Amino acid sequence: IASCAKSQHWLLAVDLLGGLRQLGLRPDVVSASAVLSASEQCQRWETAAVVLAAMRRAGVEADTTSCNAAISACGKEGNWATALGLMHGMAALRLAPDEVSAGAAVSAAEKG
Q1: CB neighbourhood size of 112 (10 A)
Q2: What CA–CA distance (Å, rounded) separates 22 from 64?
Q3: Cβ atoms 45, 8 nearer than 8 A
């Protein structure tokens, strides 16, 4: 999945993440973060938001890195409202936004 992120194959990354369950494997924060990273690289903020929500439903706890990837995906598309919503939502996960979170949200506001 991480190779998909590096080569900007976001759709393949999503398919691979979904296929883990079919193989009897449980997605974790590392595999989900790789999909989020691929979404960020390909400027697919909608995919990033869906993956982040799916992580919650599956009981996979997001970390700062996964949230930052989703916020950055929004930032690259100029979707400032979603970027700020995700950044504020980090508090519900007991995560503190960092410099990357803030920078991505500012970037989204500048582009939006």
Answers
A1: 15
A2: 28
A3: no
Nearest by Cα to 33 from 67, 3, 72: 67
CA 102 to each of CA 24, 60, 80, 91: distance values in angstroms, whole numbers, following the listed order:
37, 23, 11, 14
Angle formed at CA 14 by CA 20 and CA 46, multiple of 5 degrees:
140
For 105, what's the count of Cα atoms within 13 Å in the CB-facing half-sphere? 18
pLDDT in tens, 66-109: 999 999 999 888 889 999 999 999 999 999 999 999 998 898 88
pLDDT score of 111: 85
Residues for the chain: how many in total? 112
Record the pTM: 0.84
Per DSSP, the residues of 46-64 read HHHHHHHHHHHHTTPPP-H
